[in-house]
Amino acid sequence: MAPPDNDILWARGLRYAYDGSPALLGASLGVRQGEILAVTGPRGCGKSTLLGCLSGQLSPDDGEVWFNSVPVHTLALASRERLRRDRFGWIGPTPQLVDELTAWENAALPLLLAGVGQRKARRTALEWLDRLDVGECAGKRPYALLQAQRQRIALARALVHQPDVLFADEPTAPLHQADRAQVLRTLTTAGRSHGITVVLATHDAEVATLADRTFTLVDGRASGAPAEAACSVSV
Ligand SMILES: Nc1ncnc2c1ncn2[C@@H]1O[C@H](COP(=O)(O)OP(=O)(O)OP(=O)(O)O)[C@@H](O)[C@H]1O
Hints:
By secondary structure, the chain is an alpha/beta fold. The protein has 7 helices and 10 strands. Helix 3 crosses helix 4, helix 3 packs parallel to helix 5 (147-159) and helix 5 (147-159) runs parallel beside helix 6. It starts with 6 loop residues before the first strand and ends in a 13-residue tail after the last strand. Adenosine-5'-triphosphate is lined by residues 18, 21, 23, 41, 43-49, 203.
């Protein structure tokens, strides 16, 4: 079956198991260009695994993932890595920064890897750090920063190259309430103003209200999908 034209991301019948222990049991979904989709569900229902499969970090045991007209599930490793680097952004629940680089260098990494000149990469990274209220941290290394500042820098890095799709896996987990609201606002505003599609995994119903649409996973499949028909269910 070919993916519909208006879906930037499209997955069918995704199955994934960790050492024989199933995490996804036939999840199917479509994500439209520019929308903010919240992937919700209780802890352990498979949200992170679904984002891993959609973003090409994990290879599903069965099923298909398409990005535009590209079949991600059959791409060779090098092509998948290039796709992730150039077209996708990723932010997880804990900031994973390069210890040896300053905040702006961390934020600029996707641009530098794509061959953008140092001066332009620095300027763009600084703009994103300012937008996220961590401009004053630009010259500091991660060890000298608070966890909340590190997470904002990780978000700047995820957005700096204006990816087609931003995958955000519980991005506000390490933040306090006030930080959480601002980071989420920046994330959703950036998505809407730059036409970035956002796939946001969260178990927080309040966070999910910022999304255009919600996809609920229960035990590795779409909520309400009967086990035997799970492969053909979509939202
Ligand atoms: N690396 C791993 N090795 C083994 N089992 C794993 C691994 N990662 C996840 N699992 C298991 O797979 C299932 C789905 O996990 P996953 O992290 O995708 O769910 P989640 O909905 O994102 O959970 P959470 O809300 O806690 O982040 C769970 O039962 C989890 O224990």
